[in-house]
Amino acid sequence: MLRGGMISIRELRVDYDTVCAVRDLTLEIGPGQVFGLIGPNGAGKTSTMRAVAGLVEPTYGTIELCGQDVRDARSVFHRVGFMPDFPPLYDDLLVWEFLDLFAASYRVPRRERPARVGEALELVGLVEKRQAMILSLSRGMRQRLMLAKTLLPRPDVLLLDEPASGVDPHGRMALRNILLDLASQGRAVLISSHILAEMNEFCSVVGVMERGRLVVSGRVDELAARLTSESAVAIDVVDGAERLADVLASRGLEAEAGGRPGEYRVPFRGTPHDVSELLAALVAAGVKIASFTRMKPSLEELFLSAGAKELS
Amino acid sequence: MIGVLRDNPILVMCARSRLRRQHVVPFVTVILVLCAFIALSVAMSSGRPADRALSFFRWFATLQGAVLLLLGTARVGAATSQVSQSGMLDFHRVSPLSARSQAVGFVLGAPIREYLGFAIILPLTLVAGCVSQVGLLAVLGVCGLTLLSSWVFHTLAAVLGLFAGPGARRVGTGGGVGFAVVACLLAPAAYFGTALPGLLTPIPGSSALLIDAAGGWPEGELPASFPQPPTFFGLPLPLYFQSLIYQVPVLAFLSVALVRRLRSDGVHLFSRPVACLLLGTVATLALGGVIGRERATTTQLGAVSAVVLGMAWLLVFVVTPTAGAHAGGLRRAARRGQEREPAMADAAVNWRPVACFAGIVAAVAVGAEGVGQGASGLSRAASTGLSVLWFGWALQGYALLYRGRAVPYFMLLLFGLCAVPLLLAILLASADLDRLANVAVAVCPFGAGFQPDPMAIIVHAGLALWFGLRLRTDELDAVGRCRDATVVQTT
Question: Residue B35: helix, strand or coil by DSSP?
Fold first, then answer.
């Protein structure tokens, strides 16, 4: 459990009629942490996010942002930036007018607003679109504008629901840099996504949600190490397939044929030392190997399978 | 108020988006053309200059009212339904901007172009009013009443707009305008029937103000059959002030609803105590139009009962939690170590507010009947009160039992309970069995306020008992299910 939370969720439950969207979720996100909530659609990520933003009333449980209960202290929202998964915009406003609207909403002093708007636009690379109508922006630009709006009040807590959907690689890189920069300044960021590659780029800590429960959480590298013990080895054999089978059988392993002749996949649990021993044994048995690769399952497969396993 | 108006971001945003040159120029052109058309047609008419000035004034004031009240109402409804549907409202909810500021921003900002139209016509109205015998004070009074009345309907449209689901934007746009048009059409009812809802429009108050400013009705022009102007609890207050008495509390309650809805989608429009207070206020205002009136007719008494009964039924929908909300309340209560939520909490079964509504409706029936000639006040009170009881408890029971399908099933029940007695009444009436036909009409829920009958009381009491017992069983089932779920979870 992470301590010293900027975002502190305790025993959160969210129900929609008969559906329990979030079930007894407890979570703490400290300063400087970028926490990724991941899981399949319907896992409860967005409900969690909306409850943290105060948009959904929890059935029970407490949510504290910067030490204040979201239900009791509206003033805490001065310190929160929220970006939903389908960011809506006022199409009939100019880009700067939209940001100015939220600068005023967040009580940025009138004299500071133009500079603050310019700063936010520069951060997301939309300076040249300052005078453009929002209606004319592409989807990626709209997403960046929404990010600019979210960053405008310089929030201590950021809640980002699918922030990179629809953003081009350049935009994603910029987003990653922005988030890392914010984390280095001690801000807490909660991101939800079902695209795991995104999470790998952005997050220091991740939690897997499935059917409303947080099934696994921890630092990305720790989780990866824990879960890659169930990886496989890909072997490209030039000659000696029979000997390969013998060596594997002597170790209780079995090769699965790959797509091409001579290509094999061997499900393998073990440490890096075990892998090197296997390679040495194959070479000693005279198997001619063109390539030998420790396959790491995609982060997506790992996290989702981890979630499913915990539930079962 | 000044705090929420000063540097209000929503107001500024509305001004920016709605006052762009490409939108303003055509709008102003249309307004000016209409004004020119009015000026030309009145100038070509015959009559004394003062009379023609009065005609100018009436037309310009009407145009101002149409622009602000009707177009403005449509605009506010469209704006709130748009922010609600697009999800933009969530951003405002998450921002530190208070719901009160948002409400003021949308109600005053969304129709900003219509305010511009109003302001463009204002000099013409002022000149016409001052040249005629109306006078500056009366002109300002009419404008003020138009503004207040517009705020009532704008706020109503804003509330309706927030209810608009995906693809139902017309609810916000058309709903408010529909109410405004119906209220305007019912404005004469301020003289003939109940003072509500006619006095919510500026028509009766402005007309009375103009007549007073012109020195009253000319001798001999007022027909003998013309009904007396409405009084307020027997006080012959000017209609202008009566309009204010009706409009200010209605605006206040609508504002409460709007602020609550802007704060969260999940809350009821009114808390239960406020809903009871609202019904009490509506009852007081409706009774104010007939109590102390010299010649209160049966139609007027029936209209008062119908207005309050209708309002009670509407409020029953407001205070009735869904099965999900009720179950959530039970879970919350279980966490606190209680069996259920307090009786006046939003998620509790609607026993107490419905009983409160029934009491108010019955009291209105007694109060209204007290000023009439008949002695059937208690009968009408029992009939209407019991009808509210079974209506409310049946709806709650259906909500717990049928969940998402509760409202259609409930409507089907109401249809059956209305159609069968009415059909029976028609058949009985055609067989010259008028007494029995009256009983059949009285059994119909919508006949409760109009046709009190001892037999109807028995039927309504039976329905109240039946639905009350059913609801009690459903509530106990829900409590039991929640308790079981909690036990399973903790073990």
Answer: helix
Which of helix, strand or coil describes residue A70? coil
Closest residue in B to A149 (Cα) is B91
Upper half-sphere CA count for residue A39 (Cβ side, 13 Å): 28
Task: Identify whether the C-beta of residue A2 lies closer than 8 Å to the C-beta of residue A205.
Answer: yes
DSSP annotation of A133: B
Strands (E) located in B29-177: none
What are the backbone dihedrals phi and psi of residue A156, each rounded to the nearest 5 degrees, phi first?
Answer: -85, -25
Check: pTM over 0.90? Answer yes or no: no
ipTM of predicted complex: 0.83
Residue B264 touches partner A, C-beta closer than 8 Å? yes
User: Are B95 and A102 a contacting pair at CB < 8 A?
Assistant: yes
- Determine the distance in angstroms separating the CA of A90 from the nearest CA of chain B, rounded to an integer: 8
Q: Taking the C-alpha atoms of B34, B131, B213 and B228 in order, what is their torsion angle to the nearest 10 degrees?
A: -40
3-state secondary structure of B201: coil
Is residue A197 within a helix (H) or strand (E), and if so which, with residue range? Answer: helix A196-202
Task: Give per-residue pLDDT as tens, B374-431.
Answer: 556 677 788 888 889 999 999 999 999 988 889 899 999 988 888 888 888 888 888 8
- Which amino acid is residue B222, in one-letter code? L
Q: How far is B333 from chain A (nearest CA, A)?
A: 9
- Beta-carbon separation of A90 and B332 below 8 A: no
The pairing of strands A157-161 and A80-83 is parallel
B46 burial (CB, 10 Å; 0-12 / 13-18 / 19+) is exposed
Q: Is A85 on the interface with B (CB under 8 A)?
A: no
- Rounded Cα distance between B222 and B245, Å, is 26
Strands A157-161 and A188-193, bridge-based pairing: parallel
